[in-house]
Amino acid sequence: MKTTRRLMIGGTLAAPLTARAQPRLIDKPVRFVVAYTAGGAADVTARTVAQRLTEKIGVPVVVENRPGGNTLIATQSVQRAPADGTSYLVVSLNFALNRVLIANLPYDPFGDFTAVGLMSSAPNILVVHPSFPARNVQEFVAELRKRPGEIAVAHTGVGTITHLAGELLYDMSDTRVNLIAYGGSAPAHSDLLAGRVSAMFDSSSIQHIADGRLRALGITGAQRLAILPDVPTIAEQGFPGYEASSWYGLVARHGTSPEIIRQVSAEVQGIMRLQDVRELLGQRAYIPGDTTAEQFDAFMRHEAQRWTDLVRKRNIRADV
Predict the structure, then answer these.
(1) Buried b / exposed e across 34-64, counting CB within 10 Å, b at 16+?
(2) All structural domains of the chain with their residue ranges
(3) Positive or negative CA dihedral for 141, 142, 145, 149?
(4) Any idea what DSSP says for residue 160?
(5) Which helix or strand (DSSP H or E) is residue 224 part of?
(6) In CATH terms, are 30-122+246-313 and 125-237 the same topology?
(7) For residues 237 and 137, is the Cβ–Cβ distance under 8 A?
(8) Helices and strands counted in the chain (H then E)
(9) pLDDT in tens, the chain (320 residues)
(10) DSSP calls for 46-108
């Protein structure tokens, strides 16, 4: 007899329903809490996974956008939620890095939360408004040197990769900019498209580049993107060793049943292997993740350590 795979709260996978088996199944929506506004890379990835996960576990998986507070609003929402497998935080680099950015951080990323899995990663793209004179990274740096501290560059929050990808280049080129923080990619794009800011390091600008509304100067990853083969990496343009990529994963509150963590992690892995998901994310230059919970935990720890030296060198602190 064919049975439906379902998720349990505080238990194991459901057995066939009989008079003896009365498993406690999830009977309310699951939340994916995103610390950024709708429309950005984190949100798009979360919604892609949530739709497929709804089909797999038989209960609604809803995406809840809670931007602000350098991701603390979203993080504490999940931190304070019951550890029953119904609330998950969509995390990126600054989730783990906030411990060196924020004094008296009200959460421990590796003590208060449990890794579930990596959903996607993507190199960022240095993009500029078409009116900006630079057509490559060297020309961009030259403009920064002409007007030190004046050129407005958007990012999605202190400690995000959209911020640190820039800081890495400014450090390597000994330049300064006027940093403008936004609550997510969508509002940053609005100002960039309108010319109110000049540039941004971003992983969700592919369509704007294709439409000619933004100009791509360089790829922050180690390799060029198949979707933008003529855009060289920043490392290729005079900055060897430069590399910075976005990533988005899921964590749950510590104390969530290990069985639930394993089940959700396995389901997410399966979703990221689906051909339609890979194609959908590929159109945006996102790379589907494929990790166990343990592998994602190790990955986050490595990323946090990797960026800590730059944060300390640049004396970067979050204002929350």
Answers:
(1) bbbbbbbbbbbbbbbbbebbeebbebebebe
(2) 30-122+246-313, 125-237
(3) negative
(4) S
(5) none
(6) yes
(7) yes
(8) 10, 11
(9) 444 433 333 333 333 433 333 343 466 889 999 998 888 889 999 999 999 999 998 899 999 999 988 899 999 999 999 999 999 999 999 899 999 999 999 999 999 999 999 999 999 999 999 999 999 999 999 999 999 999 999 998 898 999 999 999 999 999 999 999 998 888 999 999 999 999 999 988 999 999 999 999 999 999 999 999 999 999 999 999 999 999 999 999 999 999 999 999 999 999 999 999 999 998 888 999 999 999 999 999 999 999 999 999 999 988 65
(10) HHHHHHHHHHHHSS-EEEEE---GGGHHHHHHHHTS-SSSSEEEEE-HHHHHHHHHSTT-S--
Instruction: Return the closest-CA partner of residue 231 out of 214, 220, 216.
Output: 216
DSSP 7: -
Residues 286-313: pLDDT tens digits? 999 999 999 999 999 999 999 999 999 9
Would you call 66 exposed, middle or buried from its count of C-beta atoms within 10 A (0-12, 13-18, 19+)? buried
Q: In CATH, what number does 30-122+246-313 get?
A: 3.40.190.150
* DSSP track, 115-144: EEEEEEEEE-EEEE-TTSS-SSHHHHHHHH
SS3 154: strand
CB 233 within 8 A of CB 224: yes
Q: Is there a contact between 195 and 129 (Cβ–Cβ < 8 Å)?
A: yes
Residue 161, φ and ψ in degrees, nearest 5: -70, -25
Half-sphere exposure of 221 (CA within 13 A, CB side): 20
Residues 216, 226: Cα–Cα separation, whole Å: 14
> pLDDT digit string (tens) for 117-143?
999 999 999 999 999 999 999 999 999
CA angle 155, 161, 166 (to 5 degrees): 65
Superfamily of domain 125-237: Periplasmic binding protein-like II (3.40.190.10)
